[in-house]
């Protein structure tokens, strides 16, 4: 099979076109967020009622919204918010989820393993938006609560993945040798298991990152995420809803921003998976 | 192979198909489909406060002794006349002899006695008991005469009788009015498919001028975009109060439609917790009033100018005084007032917002306006039940935005426990005097004093009157375009 594969196919995983597109788009989003700290065309929360609902022009690249705020500046600052929620939620989910998965792998088939995995099943079965609504009903809507809700939703993915991958490691000969040599379970987990499964977890984290951006947009759309006046793509989309017929740019730009960044991190995730997954690697060479 | 029978059947169907639209067209001229945002929870206005109930049934199915007309004037309804004795306590109402309930029973004076006594009975859930509490006794010497004695002179007694809470019901059918309303009005209840539509049919036995419409259908569409779509598609003939102000330019451009911006009794205010520091200091409240640029707020929410207010009173009422220039927009003065109150750098507070667009959008603009003088208002959106519980009932708030849609609700400022807690004995005494002043000219003068007092104390940030956005088909006439009371009377509605 591999012998017949056309030579034009990229030999290195990072040279695949989809990964490069992902890198480019993702880089653009990150760059936009970073630049927004030092420069935006206008102050994103500055209202100018007399300039409301202006279509895109040289003065306002993406037009203005119902309060006369510059949509491009809001998209830039909104990127910050999406990335921050994504990082926070995935960071939390990755750390806690993987830790739980690794513990479950150590205590495989014991009561603790069962407890952790059944809890993962339970929270996995619970729709993310529903748990977010519950959280915001108890603690009130806000960015931090959105982060926690999305982290809760990504947690079982990491826990299951970490446990499954760790179990494979535990069966490897050199791990058995390490056990025979008297290394503690914690030490083996730290020195042998974790480095082995890190790659898979990172791939999963990238894909969860894309999902987190989408979830944040969804929650903000419902009014449960970032609160005004801080710009957020999901809320921009919600507010654009009533203006869509006459001022379509209000919906198009935040919609495109969400779609492109989700696409970017999915493509990045795919590329990284190709790099990490041994099966994929073999089929390629 | 096609047989002759098939051909005939096909021809028959074709003929039917061409005739159907014509038949529908001919019928459309004496029926109307009305769009409303909210569906009433029941159809009995004496059972609860929901405005949607009154919008559908009052002056259509049910009537009171008196009615409010489209200009806000009181006109005779089931009582063809009434007099007030010189003691300012005894009202004598003469009923219409030819009025009948929809079940055929003639209206009699004892029905009035029954209705009013039912409203204050211990198990009554009537939302406006204040209308009836001044009543000392009701006498019914003959079937068309009702004599009501009051405990003390009450200026707004007859006015209250025009509300949906004071409809006249029949003892035989009152218990079922929630689902099968039986009244005396120009329309009879026909059908109610909950969640979708409610149908009324003309009452051919009506005592007054018979309506031109034979049938009226109310449809309930809560989504603003769906409201616009239904209007543009011609599915509904009129929308009583459109929730999508941003669609107005688009609808105005449609020659088949007519858009009217009317007034309501909805005083929209930035309500301030008057007992909580720093808002308990009148200078802080005045500073806030000096930054509230009403035009900016109206344009940001609606995209067009509104009727602005400078106190808690609607321009629809003859006693209205224009106080909008009491606190002109003046940042320097606002900062000076804040500094004098001990907050030269401003302060932080919360702005709790209920769901309507005027509150959510208005809140963002007001937060930006307040930021100009250093007041950081943190926005907290709430759902309506939460808002009612925390802000309205428990008074747990700094600032909020809400529209007070009841007519003449300036009297609420005399209630110590009312959510913004004005607590001014001088104002309370004034409202008591107003309640006892039967002479209308004198009373309106006192209402003017009350408005000025609220403006002077900058009790709340007085913003604008909620607009009523009526959209009708161009050839439909007679819909109410102002809302002295939020009603949709259909008796005078007709196709041109």
Can you put this structure into words, describing what you see?
The complex is a heterodimer of chains A (285) and B (496). Chain A is elongated, with a radius of gyration of 22 Å. Chain A has 285 residues and is mainly α. Chain A contains ten helices and no strands. By secondary structure, chain B is α+β, with helices and mostly antiparallel strands. A seven-stranded mixed beta sheet of chain B has the order 8-9-10-1-11-18-12. In chain B, strands 15-14-16-13-17 form a five-stranded mixed beta sheet. In chain B, helix 7 packs antiparallel against helix 9 (331-340), helix 8 (294-301) packs across helix 10 (357-371) and helix 12 packs antiparallel against helix 13 (440-456). Residues 7-23 of chain B have low confidence and may be disordered. The interface between A and B is medium-sized, with 22 and 23 residues.
Give a quick set of tags describing it:
heterodimer, A: 285 residues, mainly alpha, 0% strand, disordered N terminus, disordered C terminus, B: 496 residues, alpha+beta, seven-stranded mixed sheet, five-stranded mixed sheet, 20 strands
Concise account of the structure shown:
The complex is a heterodimer of chains A (285) and B (496). Chain A is mainly α and 285 residues long.
Summarize the SSE layout with pairings.
The complex is a heterodimer of chains A (285) and B (496).
Chain A: H1 17-38, H2 71-106, H3 111-125, H4 128-139, H5 143-170, H6 173-180, H7 185-221, H8 233-240, H9 249-276, H10 278-284
Helix pairs in contact in A: 1-2, 1-9, 2-3, 2-5, 2-7, 2-9, 3-5, 4-5, 5-7, 7-8, 7-9, 8-9
Chain B: H1 4-28, E1 31-36, H2 51-57, E2 66-68, E3 74-76, E4 79-84, E5 90-95, H3 109-119, E6 135-142, E7 145-150, H4 157-160, E8 187-193, E9 197-202, E10 215-220, H5 224-233, E11 238-239, H6 248-252, E12 257-262, E13 267-272, H7 282-291, H8 294-301, H9 331-340, E14 348-353, H10 357-371, E15 376-381, H11 384-393, E16 399-404, H12 425-436, H13 440-456, E17 461-465, E18 468-473, E19 476-477, E20 494-495
Parallel strand pairs in B: 1-10, 1-11, 14-15, 14-16
Antiparallel strand pairs in B: 2-3, 4-5, 5-7, 6-7, 8-9, 9-10, 11-18, 12-18, 13-16, 13-17, 19-20
């Amino acid at each position: 099979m591999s012998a017949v594969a056309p030579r034009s196919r990229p030999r290195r995983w990072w040279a695949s076109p989809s990964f490069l597109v992902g890198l480019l788009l993702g880089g653009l989003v990150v760059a936009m967020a970073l630049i927004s700290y030092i420069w935006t065309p206008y102050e994103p929360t500055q209202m100018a009622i007399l300039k409301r609902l202006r279509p895109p022009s040289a003065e306002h690249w993406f037009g203005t919204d119902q309060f006369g705020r510059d949509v491009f500046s809001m998209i830039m600052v909104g990127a910050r918010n999406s990335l921050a929620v994504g990082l926070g939620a995935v960071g939390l989910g990755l750390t806690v989820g993987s830790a739980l998965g690794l513990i479950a792998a150590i205590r495989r088939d014991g009561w603790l393993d069962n407890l952790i995995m059944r809890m993962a099943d339970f929270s996995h079965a619970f729709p993310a938006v529903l748990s977010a609504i519950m959280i915001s009903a108890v603690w009130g809507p806000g960015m931090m609560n959105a982060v926690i809700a999305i982290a809760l939703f990504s947690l079982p993915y990491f826990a299951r993945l970490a446990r499954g991958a760790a179990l494979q490691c535990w069966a490897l000969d050199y791990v058995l040798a390490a056990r025979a040599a008297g290394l503690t379970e914690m030490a083996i987990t730290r020195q042998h298991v974790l480095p082995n499964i890190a790659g898979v977890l990172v791939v999963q984290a990238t894909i969860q990152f894309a999902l987190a951006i989408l979830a944040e947009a969804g929650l903000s759309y419902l009014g449960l995420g970032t609160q005004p006046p801080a710009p957020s793509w999901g809320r921009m989309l919600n507010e654009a809803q009533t203006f869509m017929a006459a001022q379509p740019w209000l919906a198009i730009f935040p919609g495109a921003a969400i779609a492109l960044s989700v696409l970017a991190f999915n493509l990045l995730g795919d590329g990284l998976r190709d790099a990490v997954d041994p099966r994929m690697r073999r089929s390629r060479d | 192979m096609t047989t002759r029978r098939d051909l005939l059947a096909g021809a028959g169907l074709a003929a039917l198909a061409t005739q159907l639209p014509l038949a529908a067209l001919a019928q459309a001229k004496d029926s109307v489909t009305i769009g409303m945002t909210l569906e009433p929870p029941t159809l009995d206005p004496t059972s609860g406060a929901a405005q949607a109930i009154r919008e559908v049934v009052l002056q259509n199915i049910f009537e009171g002794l008196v009615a409010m007309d489209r200009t806000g004037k009181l006109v005779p309804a089931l009582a063809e006349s009434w007099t007030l004795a010189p003691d300012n306590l005894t009202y004598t109402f003469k009923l219409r002899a030819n009025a009948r309930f929809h079940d055929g029973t003639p209206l009699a004076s004892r029905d009035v006695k029954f209705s009013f006594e039912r409203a204050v009975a211990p198990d009554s859930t009537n939302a406006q008991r204040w209308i009836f509490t001044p009543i000392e006794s009701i006498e019914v010497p003959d079937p068309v005469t009702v004599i009501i004695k009051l405990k003390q002179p009450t200026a707004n007694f007859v006015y209250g009788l025009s509300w949906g809470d004071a409809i006249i019901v029949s003892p035989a059918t009152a218990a079922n009015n929630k689902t099968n309303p039986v009244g005396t009005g120009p329309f009879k209840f026909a059908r109610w498919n909950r969640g979708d539509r409610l149908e009324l049919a003309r009452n051919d036995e009506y005592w007054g001028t018979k309506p031109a419409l034979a049938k009226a259908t109310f449809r309930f569409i809560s989504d603003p975009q769906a409201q616009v779509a239904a209007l543009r598609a011609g599915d509904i003939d009129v929308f009583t109060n459109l929730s999508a102000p941003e669609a107005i330019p688009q609808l105005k451009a449609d020659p088949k439609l007519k858009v009217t911006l009317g007034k309501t009794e909805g005083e929209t205010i930035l309500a301030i917790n008057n007992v909580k520091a720093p808002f308990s200091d009148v200078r802080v409240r005045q500073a806030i009033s000096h930054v509230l640029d009403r035009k900016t707020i109206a344009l940001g929410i609606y995209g067009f100018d509104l009727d602005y207010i400078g106190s808690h009173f609607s321009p629809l009422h003859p006693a209205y005084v224009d106080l909008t220039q009491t606190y002109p927009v003046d940042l320097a003065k606002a900062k000076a007032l804040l500094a004098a109150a001990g907050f030269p750098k401003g302060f932080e507070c919360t702005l709790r917002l209920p769901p309507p667009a005027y509150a959510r959008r208005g809140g963002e603009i007001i937060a930006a306006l307040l930021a100009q003088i250093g007041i950081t208002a943190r926005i907290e959106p709430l759902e309506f039940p939460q808002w009612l519980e925390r802000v309205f009932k428990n008074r747990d708030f700094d600032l909020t935005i809400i529209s007070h849609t009841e007519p003449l609700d300036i009297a609420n400022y005399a209630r110590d426990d009312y959510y913004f807690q004005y607590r001014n004995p001088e104002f309370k005494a004034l409202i008591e005097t107003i309640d006892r002043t039967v002479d209308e000219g004198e009373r309106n003068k006192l209402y003017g004093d009350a408005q000025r007092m609220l403006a002077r104390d900058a009790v709340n940030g007085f913003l604008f009157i909620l607009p009523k956005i009526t959209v009708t088909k161009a050839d439909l006439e007679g819909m109410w375009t102002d809302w002295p009371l939020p009603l949709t009377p259909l008796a005078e509605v007709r196709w041109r």
